[in-house]
Every structure is written in structure tokens, then in C-alpha cells.
Design brief:
Layout (H helix, E strand, L loop, with lengths): L5 H12 L8 H15 L6 E7 L6 E3 L4 E10 L4 E2 L1 E2 L2 H7 L6 E2 L3 E5 L2 E5 L1 E2 L4 E8 L11 H5 L1 H15 L3 H27 L10
Parallel strand pairs: 5-7, 6-9
Antiparallel strand pairs: 1-10, 2-8, 3-4, 3-10, 7-8
Helix pairs in contact: 1-5, 2-5, 5-6
């Protein structure tokens, strides 16, 4: 059976389980699989960019809804300036909200917000490169991961299904297959990032 889209995936999960009585539950297994993949996977195909706009005298900007992890933050609109990441504790000590204002130089992440220090004294554009969650299959027929690595979706969903059906032995099998596929993809992506000439630190 093809695994080209969400409908195919739902049908395949039922076929591999050899169960016809789980049609109401299989979408939940897929949702749980997607949540797990968002936690476990960090590959280049997940990296995207967004531009956030600050508000004068407001320390926080809201992160994109699909944000998982920050890769790089740059102040744009003139000569680009990379912002350094700091801990929330250091932000509280050095840049308490509203006490110091100016051009942002550092950031930290709290919940679904990015806190900036100093508190912006005007409107700034901040470009963020980040790992984004793949679009949920319940909202779109397919996405990059299902198209290129359908086994990750299938084995993860099957592992969740086997936990639901209390088939511990089967859950361990699907879990092991999921881990093999996950590690292979992550390793291949990491190797591709380092391919070619050796990475060097450039001093400018």
C-alpha cells in the first residue's frame, strides 16, 4: 500500500495492525507519532525562518506557532547583528523588564515568547532561524517527512497503537524499528551537513 498522504497512512496502520475496529483511534496514534517526532528529530529540512517585530518598551515577542528550537537570531534592518542567547536567570538580573531599554543584544526563550535584553526602545526586525514542527497531517494531506520517510510515521504510529492495545511485545518491535529509522535519518543529515571540506573557524 502506498504511503503518499494522511489517508494512506491511516489505512496502512490498520492493515499492519490487522485490526478493523480502530478507525476512531488511529488518528490519535498519528497525532501521538507527530508529537514524538517533534521531540526526537532535528534535521535541516525542519529549519525555516521568520521575521519578528518588536514593540517599543515591550520586552517579549511571540515565537512562531510551529517553533520547536532556535538555531540563530539576527537583528536586521541595518548591518545584521547576531543576538547572543542567555539564561532566563541572567536576563532577569542584567535586563529586568522595563528597567533598561535600548537596542536588543541578547535573548532567552520563556514558554512561547522570546525575551529580549535590553527591552527594545523602538521597533526592530528580528530574523529567527528555527526548527519548525512539520505540518500536521490532520491539517494537510502530506508533508516533507511523510513523502521522504514514511516509515518513521508508520512505525511510530504502530508503536503507539500497540501500547493502546496492550500488545507489549509488538510495541517493542515497532519501537525498535522506529528508532533504527530515526537514527539513520539523523545520522545521514548530520553527515551531509559536514560533507565536503573540513569545517573551520574563520576569524574576521
Amino acid at each position: 500500500m502506498a504511503l503518499a498522504n494522511y489517508t494512506d497512512l491511516v489505512a496502512s496502520v490498520g492493515t499492519w495492525l490487522k485490526r478493523s475496529d480502530l478507525s476512531a483511534q488511529i488518528p490519535d496514534f498519528v497525532t501521538l507519532a507527530e508529537a514524538r517526532l517533534a521531540r526526537d528529530l532535528r534535521i535541516r529540512s525542519m529549519i525555516t525562518t521568520a521575521t519578528l517585530t518588536t514593540v517599543a518598551d515591550t520586552q517579549a515577542v511571540t515565537l512562531p506557532a510551529d517553533w520547536l528550537e532556535t538555531e540563530n537570531v539576527t537583528l536586521v534592518g541595518g548591518a545584521p547583528v547576531n543576538l547572543a542567547v542567555v539564561t532566563p536567570e541572567l536576563m532577569d538580573v542584567k535586563y529586568p523588564s522595563g528597567i533598561r531599554t535600548g537596542k536588543p543584544a541578547v535573548y532567552c526563550v520563556l514558554g512561547d515568547e522570546m525575551q529580549l535584553g535590553p527591552t527594545p526602545d523602538g521597533v526592530y526586525s528580528i530574523q529567527i532561524a528555527y526548527y519548525a514542527r512539520f505540518a500536521a497531517l490532520s491539517a494537510t494531506p502530506t508533508n516533507w517527512l511523510l513523502t521522504n520517510h514514511p516509515s518513521l510515521y508508520l512505525f511510530s504510529a504502530l508503536a503507539e497503537a500497540s501500547v493502546y492495545t496492550l500488545e507489549d511485545d509488538r510495541a517493542q518491535i515497532w519501537e525498535a524499528k522506529y528508532r533504527v529509522e530515526l537514527n539513520a535519518l539523523q545520522a545521514a543529515d548530520d553527515a551531509a551537513l559536514r560533507s565536503g571540506s573540513a569545517m573551520r573557524v574563520r576569524y574576521i
